[in-house]
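Hypothesis: this fold can be encoded by more than one sequence.
Test: take the structure tokens below, design a sequence, compare later.
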């Protein structure tokens, strides 16, 4: 199970007729296996959905704080090696799941700190990319 989320910006709002032009900037899919970190360290009631309708200029600092917290939870070391373009390197190693009972392949779907970090990092990187030109853009989804 997963959640589809979208980054959109509303332009040309008309107070009289309530018309608005919506521009969809990006989309992403948040796996159920990655939601735990959002409830644990972002918003205990709404998890990642707490970022819905929050303008990017307010959201980006909160996402950076979450990312820093995840690195701290990992013993103060980065969770993944990074590629030169800023994306996270994939690996074939086995990593501990968050219940610390078993290991899972670093495949992007497992319930691990590595994969939750990848989710947060992608949303943060996308948000920062659009921040300058669309500071009032917001995420929404199902």
């Amino acid at each position: 199970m997963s959640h589809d989320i979208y980054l959109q910006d509303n332009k040309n709002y008309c107070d009289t007729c309530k018309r608005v032009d919506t521009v969809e900037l990006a989309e992403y899919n948040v796996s159920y296996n990655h939601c735990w970190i959002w409830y644990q360290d972002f918003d205990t009631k709404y998890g990642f959905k707490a970022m819905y309708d929050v303008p990017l200029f307010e959201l980006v600092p909160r996402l950076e704080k979450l990312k820093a917290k995840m690195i701290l939870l990992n013993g103060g070391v980065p969770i993944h090696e990074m590629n030169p373009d800023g994306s996270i390197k994939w690996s074939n190693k086995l990593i501990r799941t968050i219940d610390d009972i078993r290991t899972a392949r670093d495949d992007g779907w497992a319930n691990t700190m590595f994969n939750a970090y990848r989710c947060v990092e992608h949303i943060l990187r996308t948000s920062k990319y659009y921040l300058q030109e669309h500071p009032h853009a917001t995420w929404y989804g199902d």
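The chain has one domain: 2-141. The chain has a mean pLDDT of 82.
Hypothesis status: open.
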